[in-house]
């Protein structure tokens, strides 16, 4: 009996260091996990060097890069909360809209579009979550046409030509498809944002590109020298999961002491001095409490293409008559919110194929697919849900001299 007691005491004491080690290991793993979730700021200071409004595609990157300078401190304010696991699943992307992750906007009644929709209005999804619309997006990695950037530069936006922005695309990118990444003039590896073809495609993806070649187009990387052509989709995903800008740019740096990330923080107003026209502070609401925080250097408005203009208008910057109709004192009369352009997404092109290859719903939401995704991050749920390949073609309206 005596002996057994010693043994049981021994095993208790012997297991204690093991627990301690395990705990230390686990917590350091947690601390260093590049994909560990961001913690919501517990304290908010009265003043920061920079305040970034909106932690979406733009805000997450800006906050990351600013806090590389260790003697600047930054407050990143986001109206929404953090991503859950559903947002991680590429094949579940359409389930995210019209949930709390979405601002759930609708357009006004349209007279020349949306005529087949209820009340001639379209849903207008915008991310209301850390990572912003990069959490709702279909993840297609498309930089856009060179000439758009060059046009912005030509209109006076210094630093926005394609040659100016290209180094930043490359710096951010971690392209995991060697045949694309080999073109180092246009692509990068080792950056924060993981880009690759999805883990699963139907045979239609390659067939689509082949069909383009048969018609005389090039099979081409549309994010390199020339956009025109057909390609397999590249997407912002990592190991079969979504790589939102929150996952890419915020989670790995969440322990930086000079960055406070405050979620559920809805900015109501930017305080602008009516005389000097200088923006000095930001007013926001978090859990029913109103905060006003000063910015020593700059306030960055990255609340998205709908909310940024709205916030400017609420702050007194916008069309004077519109602001006055809401009783908002006008600080600067400017056409804020004008010239907004959005693309339509057409879900209605339906055709039959004579092999069982297409993205049929039963294949996605069936038990084998769920199991495969859970175990291997593979199978149909790792796909881009039907958007598998891309083509850019010049129509008869295109400027024939462009060739890009
Ligand atoms: C359904 C869908 C599919 C898409 N698919 C693709 C795709 O496949 N490929 C592609 O390249 N692009 C795609 N896009 C577009 C792309 O996601 C956006 O262009 C991009 O995310 C916009 O970035 P942003 O930083 O301007 O705004 P957002 O990413 O929308 O970020 C704005 C952030 O500000 C926050 N915010 C807003 N107002 C306030 C406030 N008052 N106070 C505090 N925070 C606020 C929002 O909650 C949000 O998090 C898609 C978009 C949608 C909606
Ligand atoms: C939608 O627009 C069409 C064409 O302008 C119009 O005839 C129709 O009445 C509109 N429907 C609704 C519900 O407003
Ligand atoms: C799981 O997906 C992979 C490819 O993504 C596929 O090769 C494999 O056959 C699938 N397994 C099952 C059980 O469906």
Automatic annotation (TrEMBL):
Give UniProt keywords alphabetically.
Answer: Membrane, Transmembrane, Transmembrane helix
Stored InterPro entries: FAD/NAD-bd_sf, GMC_OxRdtase, GMC_OxRdtase_N
Q: Which residues cross the membrane?
A: 6-25
> Which residue windows are coiled coil?
none
* Domain Glucose-methanol-choline oxidoreductase N-terminal intervals: 304-318
Q: Name one Pfam family in it.
A: GMC_oxred_N
The keyword Transferase appears for this protein: no
Q: Which domain of life is it from?
A: Eukaryota
* Family assignment from sequence similarity: Belongs to the GMC oxidoreductase family.
Q: What is this protein called?
A: Glucose-methanol-choline oxidoreductase N-terminal domain-containing protein
Write down the species: Daphnia magna
């Amino acid at each position: 009996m005596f002996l057994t007691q010693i043994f049981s005491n021994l095993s208790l004491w012997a297991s204690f260091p093991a627990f301690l080690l395990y705990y230390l290991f686990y917590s350091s793993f947690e601390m260093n996990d590049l994909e560990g979730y961001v913690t919501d700021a517990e304290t908010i200071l009265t003043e920061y060097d920079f305040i970034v409004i909106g932690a979406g595609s733009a805000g997450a990157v800006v906050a990351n890069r600013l806090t590389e300078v260790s003697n600047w401190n930054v407050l990143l304010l986001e109206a929404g909360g953090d991503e859950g696991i559903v947002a991680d699943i590429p094949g579940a992307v359409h389930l995210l809209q019209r949930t709390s992750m979405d601002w759930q906007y609708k357009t006004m009644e349209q007279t020349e579009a949306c005529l087949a929709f209820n009340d001639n209005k379209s849903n207008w999804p915008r991310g209301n979550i850390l990572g912003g619309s990069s959490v709702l997006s279909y993840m297609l990695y498309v930089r856009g046409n060179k000439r758009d950037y060059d046009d912005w530069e030509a209109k006076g936006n210094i630093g926005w030509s394609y040659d100016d922005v290209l180094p930043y695309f490359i710096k951010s990118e971690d392209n995991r498809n060697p045949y694309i990444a080999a073109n180092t003039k246009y692509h990068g590896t080792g950056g924060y944002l993981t880009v690759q073809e999805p883990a699963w495609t139907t045979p239609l993806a390659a067939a689509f590109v082949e069909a383009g070649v048969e018609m005389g187009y090039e099979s081409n990387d549309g994010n390199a020298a020339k956009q025109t052509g057909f390609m397999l989709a590249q997407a912002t995903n990592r190991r079969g999961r979504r790589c939102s800008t929150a996952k890419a740019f915020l989670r790995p740096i969440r322990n930086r002491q000079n960055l406070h990330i405050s979620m559920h923080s809805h900015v109501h107003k930017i305080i602008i001095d009516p005389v000097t026209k200088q923006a000095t502070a930001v007013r926001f609401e978090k859990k029913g409490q109103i905060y006003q925080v000063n910015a020593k250097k700059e306030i960055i408005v990255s609340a998205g293409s709908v909310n940024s203009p709205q916030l400017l208008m609420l702050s007194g910057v916008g069309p004077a008559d519109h602001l006055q109709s809401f009783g908002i004192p006008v600080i600067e009369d400017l056409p804020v919110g004008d010239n907004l352009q959005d693309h339509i997404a057409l879900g209605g092109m339906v055709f039959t194929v004579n092999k069982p290859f297409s993205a049929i719903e039963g294949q996605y939401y069936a038990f084998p697919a769920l199991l495969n995704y859970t175990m291997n991050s593979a199978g149909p749920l790792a796909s881009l849900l039907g958007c598998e390949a891309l083509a850019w073609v010049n129509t008869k309206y295109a400027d024939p001299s462009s060739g890009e």
